Amino acid sequence: MRHEEWALDVPRNRMPDGMKAEADVCFEIPREDGSSSTATVTHISESYVTLDFNHPLAGKELIFDVSLLEIV
Predict the structure, then answer these.
(1) Whole-number mean pLDDT of the chain?
(2) Where are the beta strands (DSSP E) in 1-72?
(3) Spans of all domains in the chain
(4) Coil, helix or strand for 38?
(5) What is the dihedral of CA 34, 12, 10, 58, to 10 degrees?
(6) 8, 9, 17, 36: least buried by Cβ within 10 Å?
(7) Would you state the pLDDT for residue 21?
(8) Spelled out in words, what is the top-level CATH class assigned to the domain 1-72?
(9) Which residues contact residue 27 at a Cβ distance below 8 angstroms, ignoring those fewer than 6 apart?
(10) Would the pLDDT of 20 be above 80?
(11) Helix (H, G, I), strand (E, B) or coil at 3
């Protein structure tokens, strides 16, 4: 399931130094509790960068090819 509210517009001047804002680039964003979250840059404008914290496969149709090898 995709959550639109997990995509955030961040002012470019709030991006950490050294982080290149390029479309489709993923970042590990540190959190206050010591863990991190992954964000993908989905849009760039002159003043904002859109960071999407959804999983890259969220909202996409997935098709699996499964082989049953044994019934126990």
Answers:
(1) 91
(2) 7-11, 26-30, 36-44, 48-52
(3) 1-72
(4) strand
(5) -80
(6) 17
(7) 76
(8) alpha beta
(9) 19, 38, 39, 40, 41, 51
(10) no
(11) coil
